[in-house]
Amino acid sequence: MAETELCFPQLNTSCVKPKRPLSDTVLIYMILSFISLLTAALNLLVIISISHFKQLHTPTNSLILSLAVSDLFVGFILLFQSMLIDGCWYIGDLMCVLYYGLDYIIISSSVGTMVLISIDRYVAICDPLHYSIRVTQKRVQVCVCLCWIWFLFCFIVFLKDNLKQPGQYNSCVGECVIMVTLSEQVVGFFFYFILPITVIVVLYMRVFVVAVSQARAMRPHIVTVTVQGSRKVTAKKSELKAARTLGVVVVVFIICFCPYYCVSLAYQETLFNASSAAFVICLYYFNSCLNPLIYAFFYPWFRKCTKVIVTLQILTSGSSDTNIL
């Protein structure tokens, strides 16, 4: 009989490492490391672009910045996720709770930011005359801060028992387990997935209907507009393009998150094997890598900012005033 390998060989209470071919382990490490580095690098470009260039200091971009920050942290979370590949947790019980807590705060903040983005696009398209009054830079920043603070508070409330005595639910040394009751899972599923997704879908359906009706109404008048009128049309097209781009972000977000939440709420080993569970988790985290790629595809300003950053032109004096749009 082959000798079993323990996470901590010097301890009799140590967890046993699951047996997996070395080639599979190396492949998983490489994939997770690649996704982690790519996610961190791309979202760092978004953060630097919006923070540095003054033309990008708008309420909508502040929401994109908040989303990029949460996606950047997802890249670091993937590094911790890679530690669990061999079935062992080596950095202590407190770090285990903090890892799950950080994961919860980041993902929940992403969901909250998606809701704020939907509200922003709803007001911009459906009530454009009052948009600049209702949606200001300061109000958006306050909403983003409250969003992050709220989910930090929820983390402390939901995991208070795990924080009091980290590792109390571990069955062996080297395991990373936290306890969340079924009622807490159901409440979290409703408030952090069903309700936000419902709000997002309803608002974007409304935005889509209004955008289509406005496009049809503007079409007969485009030929006869004045110079001032043409500027309004251009501004309206810009808002519609932003709504379309962020709509793609929202759709990709829903596609990536739905399988994970469905599996996590109704997990049964008879229905989901290790391979399908791993795919769902990878899809869940890979969403953070896709968002910057969507910006690069739809936003010319992001491609221009990336070129300025990569060529180090950003280090020159006055680069923050560069014409990006």
TrEMBL record:
Keywords per UniProt: Cell membrane, G-protein coupled receptor, Membrane, Receptor, Transducer, Transmembrane, Transmembrane helix
Highest rank taxon of the organism: Eukaryota
Membrane topology: Multi-pass membrane protein
InterPro entries xrefs: GPCR_Rhodpsn, GPCR_Rhodpsn_7TM, TAAR
GO MF annotations, alphabetized: trace-amine receptor activity
Subcellular location: Cell membrane
Transmembrane residue ranges: 26-50, 62-85, 97-119, 140-159, 189-212, 246-268, 274-298
Residue span(s) of domain G-protein coupled receptors family 1 profile: 42-295
Pfam families, alphabetized: 7tm_1
Similarity comment: family membership: Belongs to the G-protein coupled receptor 1 family.
Record protein name field: G-protein coupled receptors family 1 profile domain-containing protein
